[in-house]
């Protein structure tokens, strides 16, 4: 069975291999969350600094290694880079199952972040290499959906395993073994050249002004969506309900990816505007109301809005560069996502202190206000590269 790419066809197993890489890129840090409350019992002499390093340092290391992988993809062998990244990710994750010292757990977790950083731009880069036009947009949507579905399922699995033994959540870090095995199909299938008239062929080098605008928009969208991370025991609800809300958020991000092409054809140039309105409304629901219905509706709207924006951002990043530099462009844009993840808590806490507002609703009201500003900007610059959508996306 073969799959249409816009450039011809490729084997179904090659597509499955590319999807499997997308499925594991969000795993770093996931195994730590369910055991975070027990770390002081497991490591009674661990300091607060060591715990902070364990939770944040792997995510910080992802950023430079994403950029390094993007740069090496231009002149190096992308397949070897993929194998190295997956191998480092898998071996370090496997090693976590046997570690009983905090400093060693921090070190190996950092290796997990390094491995993930290498494969993150390649996970999208291979889809860009294999597909073009509407086929690529559709596949980027599928990739985003698979990523978030895996995140939800792996989180549930890690939470269950944490009740058995604190080591067992690290089993989710061995999932890169699957794309490592399937990568042989990627090696066997070289990407076809871009067809004549493709947007990428119009560029001789990366269009950095366009890419910078896309990065700014992506940082803003990610920062707004990260307000959901403050739903830890929101409004006095039980932690189990908070976990349900966060899982619902990621499931909502997943859904648009399966229907991205019809959504774009329906909303046309207003797709980003509508998505930001959904995010703004969802954040307001969470910030203003306590009832479960409004919290569920808010998380769903924020997730759906972000789930539409994310794959479109990746396609625009690829379209702003020639084919041989597409993975480099993607690595730069995707690094903004992790930069927002690292900076968001510090920015929110800084604004809390400046404005002297310590209430639990503050992150949501603040983000809703920023989302409203983003809506106005998107309306004002709806014909721009970053905020708008070219007719080629929804031309029949």
What secondary-structure arrangement, pairings included, does this model have?
Elements: E1 2-4, E2 9-11, H1 12-24, H2 39-42, H3 48-75, H4 78-95, H5 102-130, H6 133-162, H7 177-188, H8 208-225, H9 239-258, H10 260-267, H11 271-288, H12 292-319, H13 326-355, H14 362-380
Antiparallel strand pairs: 1-2
Helix pairs in contact: 1-5, 1-6, 1-7, 3-5, 3-13, 4-5, 4-7, 5-6, 5-13, 6-9, 6-12, 8-12, 8-13, 8-14, 9-12, 11-12, 11-14, 12-13
Key words describing this protein structure:
2% strand; 396 residues; two-stranded antiparallel ribbon
What does this structure look like?
β1 and β2 form a beta hairpin. α9 packs across α12. The chain has a two-stranded antiparallel sheet with strand order 1-2. With 396 residues, it is an all-alpha fold. The chain has 14 helices and 2 strands.
Short description:
With 396 residues, this protein is mainly alpha-helical.
How do the helices and strands follow one another from N- to C-terminus? EEHHHHHHHHHHHHHH
User: What class, by secondary structure content?
Assistant: mainly alpha
The average pLDDT is 89
DSSP helical segment count: 14
User: What is the helix fraction of residues, given as a range?
Assistant: 55-70%
Query: How would the global form be characterised?
Result: globular
Taken as a percent bin, the fraction of beta residues is under 5%
Number of strands: 2
| Largest sheet, spatial ordering of strands | 1-2
Query: Cα distance, first to last residue?
Result: 26 Å
């Amino acid at each position: 069975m073969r799959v249409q790419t816009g450039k011809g066809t490729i084997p179904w197993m090659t597509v499955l291999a590319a999807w499997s890489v997308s499925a594991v890129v969000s795993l770093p840090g996931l195994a730590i969350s369910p055991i975070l409350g027990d770390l002081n019992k497991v490591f009674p002499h661990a300091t607060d600094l060591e715990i902070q390093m364990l939770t944040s340092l792997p995510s910080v290391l992802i950023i430079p290694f994403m950029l390094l992988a993007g740069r090496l993809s231009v002149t190096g062998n992308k397949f070897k880079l993929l194998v190295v990244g997956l191998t480092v990710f898998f071996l370090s994750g496997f090693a976590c199952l046997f570690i009983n010292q905090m400093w060693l757990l921090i070190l190996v977790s950092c290796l997990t972040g390094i491995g993930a950083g290498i494969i993150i731009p390649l996970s999208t880069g291979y889809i860009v290499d294999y597909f073009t036009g509407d086929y690529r947009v559709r596949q980027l949507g599928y990739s985003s959906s698979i990523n978030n579905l895996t995140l939800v399922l792996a989180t549930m699995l890690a939470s269950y395993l944490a009740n058995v033994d604190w080591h067992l959540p690290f089993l989710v870090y061995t999932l890169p073994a699957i794309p490592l095995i399937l990568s042989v199909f990627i090696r066997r299938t070289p990407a076809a050249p871009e067809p004549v008239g493709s947007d990428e062929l119009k560029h001789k080098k990366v269009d950095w002004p366009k890419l910078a605008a896309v990065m700014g928009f992506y940082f803003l969208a990610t920062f707004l969506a990260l307000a959901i991370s403050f739903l830890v025991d929101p409004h006095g609800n039980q932690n189990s309900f908070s976990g349900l809300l966060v899982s619902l958020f990621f499931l909502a991000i997943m859904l648009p990816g399966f229907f991205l092409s019809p959504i774009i054809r329906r909303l046309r140039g207003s797709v980003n505007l509508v998505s930001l309105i959904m995010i703004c409304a969802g954040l307001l629901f969470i910030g203003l109301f306590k009832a479960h219905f409004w919290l569920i509706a808010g998380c769903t709207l924020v997730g759906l809005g972000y789930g539409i924006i994310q794959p479109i951002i990746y396609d625009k990043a690829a379209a702003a560069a020639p084919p041989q530099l597409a993975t480099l462009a993607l690595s730069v844009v995707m690094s903004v996502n992790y930069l927002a993840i690292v900076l968001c808590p510090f920015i929110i806490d800084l604004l809390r202190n400046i404005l002297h507002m310590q209430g639990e609703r503050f992150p949501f009201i603040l983000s809703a206000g920023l989302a409203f500003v983003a809506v106005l900007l998107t309306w004002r610059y709806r014909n721009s590269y970053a905020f708008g959508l070219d007719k080629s996306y929804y031309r029949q």
